[in-house]
Amino acid sequence: MDEGEPSQLYKTLLLEQFQNPSQAVEVLIAYYQMSGEEAWLVSKRYHAVQATKGVNGHSRKQLIKSHRGNRKSTEGNKRPYMLASLRRGN
To answer: How far is CA 10 from CA 32, 41, 47, 56, 64, in A?
Structure first.
């Protein structure tokens, strides 16, 4: 048995067969005659990798320079009214 075979089957069961993780683990146990502990380890590894990938291959970090298009342009890039200046009475 190859190291990647159970994880590939697990991924196929989740994505193409629309099974939940506990159902997919049951199939791994039956098909590869592995222990429940080993099958759950395959599941944990798969979900750990998916968590680090993020959505569509991007992590949850902000993309470089993506904030620049969202700024409102004001004179001198300053806000016209700052809350602190309003509280002081200036």
So the answer is: 11, 11, 11, 20, 34
Q: Which two tokens stand for residue 35?
A: 């222990």
Specify if 87 maps to a domain: no
How many domains is the chain built from?
Answer: 1
> Quick one: how far is CA 13 from the chain centroid?
19
User: Which range of residues forms the domain containing residue 43?
Assistant: 4-51
Residue 33 has pLDDT above 80, yes or no: yes
- The pTM assigned to this predicted structure is 0.57
Closest C-alpha to 27, from 16, 51, 50 = 16
**Is 89 within a domain?**
no
